[in-house]
Amino acid sequence: MKTTHGLLKHKSLPEIRAAIRAGNYTSHTAGLGGGYLQANLAIMPEAYALDFMRFCQRNPKPCPLVGVSDTGNPMLTTLGHDLDLRTDVPAYNIYRDGQLSGSTTDISDIWTDDLVGFALGCSFTFEQALQAEGIAMWHIDNDRTVPMFRSSIQTVPAGPFGGAMVVSMRAIPEDQLARTIEVSGRYPLGHGAPVHWGDPAEIGIADVTRPEWGDPAPVPPGHIPTFWACGVTPQVAVTRAKLPLCITHKPGHMLITDVPDDAEFPVISSEQNS
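Structure (tokenized):
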């Protein structure tokens, strides 16, 4: 039975994951699974995995690497005791030769024994911390996906991977900006502190009301557009690299792990798995 974001906000992590795995929830995960680390996802053939790992290591702000699967194994055991990369994301994007070829809610039929999955930290982690501080997140309060933009900030390349950094935008009240920077900076595995605030044109964004991914969000008077490095950056890098196959999360539709979002090193131990 299909369910809604409003209903899932009050459910436990196992219940949320079960709804996603069954295909009963296919929308964004902002505000779900409170207290647990959410992750962006990139899945690719093993032949490209080492270069992609180098790319993440060189660009930790947009690509904070929190987990890597074993080749061919869809179970990401370091981030959950029952976490299946084929089914546990609400929606996936499929890229072939660098072009988006479609979206789906289950990749079981295209999983092969040479695929490697990468989980990258997500901004939803610091958003929950900001909300706990009384700093509102408009897109969460209004059941929208955060607006995301391709910036003029360039990543450090590795092999075929490189290109522009994608950033996500939240309008922050002027009197809460310093606190916002401080609180989000505590979560380096969730992109950390913002990379820019103020004039969007300074990082190559011509119109802040027209995001390339996600939904438009207002910037009311007395608010400052504030930009964080975003986990959609690897999707831009994958497009540039023209991999024969790469599977990612659909922007805003994350993998919810079993790892507490304040963990310094996100690995599920054997004791936790038992």
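The radius of gyration is 17 Å. The domain at 5-122+241-273 is CATH 3.40.1640.10 (PSTPO5379-like).
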